[in-house]
Amino acid sequence: MSLLDVENLTLQFRTDEGIITAVDNVSFSLEPGEVMGLVGESGSGKSVTAKSLMKLNPGNAIYSDDTKITLHLDSGPVDVMSLRNAREMEVVRGGAISMIFQEPMASFAPAISIGKQMVEQLLVHSDMNKKQARDLSIEMLDRVGISDASTRFNQYAFELSGGMRQRAMIAMALSTKPKLLIADEPTTALDVTIQAQVIDLMKDLVTEFNMGIIFITHDLGVVAQTADKVAVMYLGRMVEQGPVREVIRHPHHPYTQGLIAALPKLDDLEAPLVPVPGDIPSPLERPPGCVFHTRCSKIIGDICKTEIPQWVQTAENHRAACHLCKVGSGA
Amino acid sequence: MSDTPLISTDGLSVTFRINAGAFKKFDLKAVEGISIDIPKGSFFGIVGESGSGKTTLGRALLKAVDISEGTATYDDGEVQYDIGSLSGAELTEYRKHAQLIFQDPYAALSPRMTVRDIIAEPLEVMKITKTRTETDERVREIAAKCRLNLEHLRRFPHAFSGGQRQRISIARALVSGPKFIVADESVAALDLSIQADVLNLLKQIQAEMGLTFMFISHDLSVVAHTCDHVAVMYLGRIVESATTRDLFAQPRHPYTKALFSAIPSLDPDDRGKAQKLEGEIPSPTNQPPGCKFHTRCPYAIDICKSAEPKLEKSPDGHAVSCHRWEELLAESAA
User: Fold this and answer.
1) Residue B225 is nearest to which of A163, A260, A273, comparing CB atoms?
2) What are the pLDDT digits (tens) for B134-171?
3) Which of A55, A172, A203, B150 has the greatest number of C-beta atoms within 10 Å?
4) Domains in chain B, start-ordered, CATH in brackets?
């Protein structure tokens, strides 16, 4: 049975300038122990999608009526959309779902020691007493490769280096033994050598805890090294989904192809870098039809400008939302 | 590209005095003993992790921080400057020749100024143009080079995406007609799809205007595609320096190799093949003795812990500072 089912997630924000559609009709599911890479540029709605799973978006967010998010826990399915207040939300927020943020310095409270923050959340989400929570926290810090964990436990975020802080963040997120971990660009602020360490650590932990992970990143290289499957988002819509090998080797959507082409390749230094032309449009001016048509180099006519492309299955579990695929499969 | 260096440093060091309490003071050596030549018209890359001193080196060459030891000179064939001793009017004059492009295009632009005013500001501060029409003309010309149109000039920065903002920053750096540009992590904050676009623009501008770039980055793959020459820094020192082609064909320093290996490969079947570097870069206030890299180096032997290796330059211009590089090279060839 799947761990998470998201169906028709549509999310709009009410702002002074009008209603902004941040996520448009997104559906996906995740199995336990599976890592899904969620890829896209800034403004593509990937973080908002992930936060919706915990209803963490600000008060001006409007979810559509047919949005359905179901989390299958041991105790039975939880309908996230029906959770109304903070107390009900505890089941998912920090309980079944944990989140690792991009900037570890901003996510820890600066004036409270790391240990105290770790203990606090355990007291909220489990039946542990202070002593047990403390022991578990120190054990978790040790597990993520922080040396001298009992000293670090009493230190503050500013005393730790960037890589260490991100490890502490991971330790904290995992100590409640969540079923689903959302990692929002967890390695973007880190140096490459540290990034490699953190990726390894996360891979070890998935196998051990059998969690599902949603890994948000804009770096396809990181996805290739961590994820089992990939979902590519553009301007609030999911444009391609599939197993990681399939999507990276045989991308069908022109946007995915563009992202891969834009990546600097090390085996051919002379190859020119090919940007995806143009800029991501403002969410206030969402293009009609296929949202990508303003930047697409493979546009096939008016259909792209008027009609929203439907999913086309291109291989097993691999699908893309592009009119081009339909033409291709029809021929 | 010619062989005469535009920027040349000899034993350049930057030391910061840290006040750690009323009577406690100590020195932090951010950059130590850097001797490099940046040839005229080249795209010179500086690579390293955070804390390696790459930004400090860039700032020292612009006299944004003081040089504590050694010398740095600028020579474009017409004027010469001894960067370390610049002050007052001479420094203002030097700034017309050397400019900086910042990392974060969201923080670098004032939200209360129009794009036209942002780009025009250096002209007014340095008193390069006399009249408003002359300023406008110059701004329009440089904006066009950076693919910004007249409509853009009237708007405020908040209306622009990251890539467009970085193009505004580039236009502002170029408007005074500099010959030397330090680009400090200029694409690090951008999305991948936009990053390629900005890099291509930098390359194009460099070729058109005959500029010399010092390109600071933590991302080897970006450097590989843009620079002619790369210097790798670790804890304030250059550990390897070579033409991009040589460096990528055969990295000699274990740190450079580790940096390559850490770049996530696009091939999912490469998982777990990367050679991982343990630990983190040591604090510059508490530097290890001997080779600065020995605490993380998988090949470290006793001599690495006591003696600091010199930067050895082979006849082909490939320089490396490692006690064991020849040995390791022979090993990997065998």
Assistant:
1) A273
2) 999 999 999 999 988 888 899 999 888 888 899 999 99
3) A172
4) 5-264+271-333 (3.40.50.300)
